[in-house]
Amino acid sequence: MANPITQLFGIRYPIIQAGMVWASGWRLASAVSNAGGLGLLGAGSMYPEVLREHIQKCKKATDKPFGVNVPLLYPDIDQLMEVIVEEKVSLVFTAAGNPKLWTAHLKSHGCTVVHVVSSVKFALKAQACGADAIVAEGFEAGGHNGREETTTLTLIPLVKKALNIPLIAAGGIGSGPAMLAAMALGADGVQVGSRFVATPEASSHPHFKSEVLKAEQGSTELTLKELTPVRLLKNPFYDQIKKLYAEGASSERLKEVLGRGRAKKGMFEGDLVEGELEIGQVAAQIESLLPAETIVQEFITTYNTTLERLASLD
Predict the structure, then answer these.
(1) Does the pTM of the predicted model rise above 0.85?
(2) Structural domain boundaries enclosing 271
(3) Among 190, 210, 226, 185, which Cα is nearest to 279's?
């Protein structure tokens, strides 16, 4: 499946595993890379020395390309970037912040830089800053999200029309047919998050994985837009937030209740009552826990069979 994304990253398939907080450690990243995709370490939930450890373990677990995802809204970004440069990571995905802050610095150290956006406006800004590719993430995606509420099927053609660098689609992509749809609209590859949460290799807690398997249509909602928009699985913590909205709570009050460490509590420690459970709408389609390699192969098999079925309609 040679195309601009496989050539840019040196991978077999244009499938990128999202660098999700509390899910994307070295076991998951190396498994996806070994299967022919691109695995990403989720630096957003790692202290600098923890990130270094995961990078080093990933290097031992795979001889294939892998990268690091860095959400720019977290503190100590300079320390994370220092580790990335020192460990000679060649692929870096940045998100949730201004690409101008770090793109030139990373590229000066030989990194290929990809920035995650939710709008045409920010895609153009990232391209102007020197990003090598863009991930355009639709409203369906789990975790931190854009305020525009633009769906993936609407966003991809808009961004494709505006860009002259490779484009990766994200948000709501949990199968080979969904991958084909995104690429039919102009994407050169796909970034997959939620489907890789439901794997043995994901570092998220088994309780959280079980809740993902139980998810149905309508089980998630994008909320906390006054702070940083995030798509959550509905649970008692989500109910607290919903009640606060009904009471007309201020941004300060929402921030106070959110506090610190909610995502870790829910997704890594398995507290399904007080924790924040970040997952995408596509969770409603996930019915089983499968190895990362099996998921990659299922994507490619069903992508090809769907392509063949559509070709037969002529």
Answers:
(1) yes
(2) 206-282
(3) 210
